[in-house]
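Might you be able to check the backbone structure tokens below? Thank you kindly.
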Amino acid sequence: MSFSHFLSATILLWAVFAGPVDRLFALQENSPTKEYLGFPENIKKQQTVAWQDTQVPLLRSGAESPEMITGKRAVYKLKHGSRKRTIPVVIFSDPQSGLTWAGPEQNTYLVLQEGILGFRLIGDRIDWCESLLQRDPNAVSPELTSRFEQDISGFTLLQSALPLSNVLKQENTTLLGAHIKNPWMFTNGAFSSQGATPILKKLQWDAGLLKLDLTDRTKKFAATVWIDPQTRKVKKTEEKPWSFFGDSNPKVKQ
């Protein structure tokens, strides 16, 4: 590894471990800001909560709503020097398709032809995540947990949860705020300055697109978004009437 590559990796890792706390990742800040981080492979992965049964929402191709299936959930702590992050991990195998998922916990999981894709709705964006383990039709949960422990490094888990590359971040993010014009959809109500994640009322397939019905936290505003999960691009949006800018008709964007 050249010095320039090493320096870039060190800066990226420092930014990730020094980043803000969100719903899934808890940061313990108890080290000097100029701490030497070392190489990515030195990130230690430690299981802090044992594997337990959990129910996960899985949306199959053509389905009108997600189906709850049984998987396994554990919690891992990533440590690099004195910096720490806690990441919940979910593992499951779809009995119908034989596809498997192993990776950071998501809001919902989609069955696609090439594999299972997870996503989380956070503020005005959707973060997408692919499974860290490939298809293994003969695998069952105990084998998957062993494979995850043996084959997935701390650095791989961290990069899956929080992509270090700006290119990966862009590829794995859909900005809903760029398509939904009502600014109050992503706040705690009209004229609120506090950002918030909208409520996902319904999720289903519609002509090959992923259709999301959303409301704001006060349930006064609503919008529907159609997304192509292959490209992760918004194809159409529709908003119910909102009056902040004097609009009286739903907005439809092709």
